Amino acid sequence: MSNRAVLEVIALDEEDAVAAQTGGADRLELVTDMAADGLTPSRTGFAAIRAAVDIPLRVMLRLTDGFAAGGPEGIDALVTRALDLREAGADEFVLGFLTADGEPDLVAVERLIAVLDGCRWTFHRAIDRTADRDGLRKRLADLPGLDTYLTAGAATGVDDGLATLKAEAARAGEPGYEARILVGGGLRLDHLPELRAAGLDAFHIGGAARPQGWAAPVSANAVRTWREALDA
Question: Which family does it belong to (predicted)?
Answer without folding.
Answer: Belongs to the CutC family.
